[in-house]
Design goal:
Elements: H1 2-19, E1 26-32, E2 35-36, E3 40-43, E4 48-50, H2 52-64, E5 66-72, H3 78-83, E6 89-90, H4 98-101, E7 105-106, E8 111-113, E9 115-120, E10 137-141, H5 147-153, E11 158-162, H6 165-174, E12 179-183, H7 184-192, E13 199-201, E14 211-213, E15 216-217, H8 222-237, H9 240-247
Parallel strand pairs: 1-5, 1-6, 10-11, 10-12
Antiparallel strand pairs: 2-3, 3-4, 6-15, 7-15, 8-14, 9-12, 9-13
Helix pairs in contact: 2-8
Length: about 250
């Protein structure tokens, strides 16, 4: 009876092995924000998640021997989801900062920029600093590094926290807040589409929080981090990253 059971078990394992594709790549679930065009967003034409950082994740993973599956969530939920294993990677407009590096790892940076400021078009002042808005109601996105400096300045009537960048832009467009702060590439891209006709990007504004983007990796995944960094080095040397910057008009 035991021999029969053992034979059945061996046969079952063999069947499972045959059912699995040879050399199947490990799949990484990549968390991203769906409202940060052109960095990471839901493409209205294809109805699929798209953007510069998703292309970076997709191509880096391919070089490293992984497959990817993208999952959209709020920006503020990304790091908790990575740390608890709900996702395996973060690919979005997330700055590499020292506080974040204490809880997750980042790959080699792939793109750098600073924050931008938006106001209504009827406000034509050439602002250079958010300190020129004492007593105003302003907004920034939750989970980003932009919101705390605004609160700590202690000069505003209110600093509203938003789930999405588009929420900020809608409220500036409608005149519900005086100014909004967020990722310059994303705000510029949205404005180029004409979706917020009453809003302008303040070109005279001088960013105080320049930063770089990289893929977010869980702290205990040293091998995965090494593979992705090697892949990014390859992409930097062979021109893939330059091509992606051109594709998304970020250069």
């Amino acid at each position: 009876m035991k021999m029969k059971t053992l034979a059945c078990s061996v046969a079952l394992l063999a069947a499972i092995s045959l059912a699995l594709p040879a050399g199947a790549a490990e799949k990484l679930v990549v968390g991203t924000e769906a409202n940060g065009i052109p960095i990471s967003f839901l493409n209205p034409k294809t109805h699929e998640l798209d953007g510069f950082m998703l292309d970076i994740a997709r191509q880096a993973a391919k070089h490293a021997g992984y497959e990817v599956e993208f999952k959209a969530m709020d920006f503020s939920a990304l790091i908790p989801a990575l740390r608890t294993g709900k996702i395996d990677l973060i690919a979005t407009g997330m700055y590499i900062t020292e506080p974040r590096k204490k809880v997750i790892d980042f790959t080699t940076p792939v793109y750098s920029y600073g924050e931008g400021m938006i106001v209504r078009k009827e406000d034509t002042k050439d602002y250079t600093s958010f300190k020129e808005l004492p007593g105003a109601v302003v907004g920034a996105q939750m989970g980003t590094i932009f919101i705390e400096p605004l609160k700590q300045a202690n000069i505003f009537k209110d600093v509203k926290a938003y789930d999405t960048l588009t929420g900020i832009m809608k409220d500036v467009n409608a005149g519900r807040i005086k100014a909004g702060f967020g990722d310059t590439p994303s705000m510029a891209y949205y404005l180029s589409l004409g979706e917020y006709p009453n809003v302008r990007l303040v070109k005279s504004y001088k960013p105080v929080l320049p930063g770089s983007l990289g893929l977010g990796v869980r702290k205990d995944e040293e091998q995965q981090l090494a593979k992705l960094n090697e892949a990014i080095a390859t992409m930097q040397s062979n021109g893939e990253i330059t091509a992606l910057l051109e594709k998304w008009k970020l250069n």
